[in-house]
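Aim 2 progress update. The chain analyzed this quarter is reproduced below.
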Amino acid sequence: MTNATPATDTELVAAMFPAPEDAPLRQAAAEAAERYRRGELSLEQIGARLAEARRAEAAARAAARIAGVLAVRSGGSKAGTAAALGVDRMALLKWLGER
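Predicted structure tokens:
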């Protein structure tokens, strides 16, 4: 990327989320930019969505934590449990009080 400032919202979104794996983020940002520009989405609404997403993430993490501990206590392997949850094995060990 050059040092030039992106001229359009589309260019700005592409510059902020350039990697192929960023496609879902690019799409979300493009939709938000369009809705914000049209006055259909306020900063307060975006902030409220962000707060809700943070609450949902915290709840999902709590569910993963208890499920992981219960799975290991029920005889599941630590490596398999961590893999199934999509978490690092060290995080699981921390949840188990072993780290």
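The helical segments are 9-16, 23-37, 43-73, 78-85, 89-95. The chain has two domains: 7-41, 57-99. These observations will guide the mutagenesis experiments scheduled for the next reporting period.
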